[in-house]
Write a structure and sequence with these properties.
By secondary structure, the protein is an all-alpha fold. It has helices spanning 3-28, 30-35, 41-46, 48-69, 71-90, 97-117, 119-129, 134-161, 167-185, 191-197, 206-237, 242-266, 272-289, 296-310, 313-324, 328-354, 359-365, 368-387.
């Protein structure tokens, strides 16, 4: 392996980390934006609409742009967009009050576009670098992004405590800009070279891949239900101290990171499809035990289980999709779009259900998501085997 190729591998995983840091930079800065820069509830809530819209649009365009520009160039562009989003976040400290919300909306739009466009390069490059260990390499990449999501709030909290909040987005913008420049100098394998050493693609009927997209949406409903309502469920329904209830959400995200590391090691020896199906069973189990939580310790435990269940499911879905589709970049982009559609729809749907059902009832009924996904997953796996 040449030094330039080693640099390409390191930058691929580092850019994934930067995407995670950028994604969490805005919500992690919520207290500062609201208390110091006058962003009200309605304004703050509106920030994530551009993110969702541009993530979906960017992910749908990612595969097409990758075929025209190349994965290397697209990775550099997506990282520059992350740098621009961080710069927009930092700029609220120097613009007038009337311009703060508009520039933040631009920032979250840039963040969404960068994340969406990164779908093809970040999900396709690990398999090209490590064709014989594609599933483990892809899960490891998502672990890197998860590390960014987990570290971001800790970094912001430490910098806010020092009284220099804007150093965080400025530093992130600078580091991401440097990373994007280095990407252009690094070496990345071509599709032809990678394809010669990798497992042949199982080109399945379009209906089979469509079922996989539905599985991705159903999974997004699962993750959104766990993550969006964990703290609220424990604080309001179980009367747990809000600080302890927040620990349950932290346990959920920490378990996702730990679970991805474990699965990355497991799929080296166990077929990815088996682990994929097993995680759906574990997700269903988690929905079944969440209503049993009645205090802080049991709440933290059940949401940690939920995080472990969700951990590597989406990375494995992307890996399976890449083997079922003639163009892996297209598969990854479509699956990321499906995930974002599911996240967006679940946010609105759960909000509406909250007015009619208790969170305990919502969690009980939500077991339908993984069970339906489990049936579809068996169909996908069976049809994929028939084509081999």
């Amino acid at each position: 392996m040449s030094p330039r190729q080693a640099l390409g591998i390191a930058l691929t995983y580092f850019c994934s980390l930067l995407q995670g840091l950028t994604l969490v930079a805005f919500p992690a800065s919520a207290t500062v934006l609201r208390s110091e820069y006058g962003i009200d509830d309605a304004g703050y809530g509106s920030l994530f609409l551009p993110q969702m819209a541009f993530t979906i649009a960017g992910s749908l365009a990612s595969a097409s742009l990758a075929s025209r520009l190349g994965l290397k160039t697209l990775l550099a562009i997506s990282t520059l967009l992350a740098a621009s989003a961080a710069a927009a976040l930092a700029s609220v400290s120097i613009v007038g009050a009337d311009a703060r919300l508009p520039i933040l909306l631009v920032g979250t739009g840039l963040m969404g576009a960068g994340f969406g466009l990164a779908a093809a390069p970040l999900n396709a490059l690990p398999a090209r670098f490590f064709p014989s260990r594609a599933d483990a390499a892809l899960v490891a990449l998502h672990t890197s992004m998860g590390a960014g999501l987990a570290l971001g709030p800790l970094i912001v909290s430490a910098i806010v405590a020092s009284g220099a909040w804007r150093a965080m987005p400025i530093g992130l913008a600078c580091v991401a800009t440097i990373a994007a420049s280095l990407v252009l100098a690094a070496a990345f394998p071509s599709a032809e070279i990678a394809g010669a050493a990798s497992t042949p693609v199982r080109v399945t009927p379009r209906a089979t891949f469509s079922l996989l997209l539905v599985v991705a949406v159903l999974y997004a409903f699962c993750e959104g239900t766990f993550a969006s309502w964990a703290s609220v469920f424990l604080a309001e329904d179980r009367h747990v101290d809000p600080r302890l209830a927040a620990l349950a959400l932290s346990a959920f995200w920490a378990s996702i990171a730990i679970g991805r590391l474990l699965v990355a090691a497991i799929v080296v020896r166990v077929p990815a499809e088996r682990v994929w199906v097993a995680l759906l069973v574990l997700i269903a189990l988690a929905f079944g035990v969440v209503p049993l939580a009645h205090d802080a310790s049991s709440g933290i435990a059940v949401f940690a289980l939920a995080g472990l269940a969700c951990s590597a499911f989406f990375p494995l879905t992307v890996g399976i999709g890449a083997r079922l589709h003639a163009r892996p970049e297209t598969a990854a982009s479509m699956l990321v779009a499906a995930l974002m559609i599911g996240v967006g729809c679940s946010s609105f749907a759960l909000g509406a259900l909250r007015a009619r059902l208790s969170l305990e009832e919502i969690y009980r009924l939500s077991i339908a998501y993984p069970l339906v996904a489990l049936v579809l997953a068996f169909v996908v796996v069976r049809r994929a085997r028939v084509t081999t």
